[in-house]
Amino acid sequence: MRFSSRGEYGLRALVDLAEHYGEGPVASAHIAERQLIPANYLNQLLLALRNGGLISSLRGPRGGHMLARSPEEIRLSDAISILEGPMAPMDCVNPEIKCECELVRGCGIYRVWAEVKAAADQILASRTLADLVPQRFEKRLQQTI
Fold first, then answer.
1. What is the pTM assigned to this prediction?
2. Among 130, 135, 142, 141, which Cα is nearest to 18's?
3. 126 pLDDT exceeds 60?
């Protein structure tokens, strides 16, 4: 399994928004600059993330983008699904592709790929954006105590 630049840059943008969670809208130009993402490409990713319900956007001079939910509530599996589609090491274990292979029923390789997919799905579902910026949330927690 390999993420495309779409998945990598999209996660970087989400992490940036998580780092600034609660501070109001973040301008896409600032995200692009900090995360080294081409601005036009970032705008496409932000649109996909907004359409997927992970971020919200405000127009205007003080506008920008922000997470639609707290970083603790946004699972990496949700982000990857929006950015990349289903994670599958081979087409035969991709739920969006009808496997035409006649050997799949007794295929030992298929079983391994299915385990790889299940493991990746479990890891991505068990992690949130907050896990990617722990220092930020530990500091905020200490300030509120």
1. 0.82
2. 130
3. yes
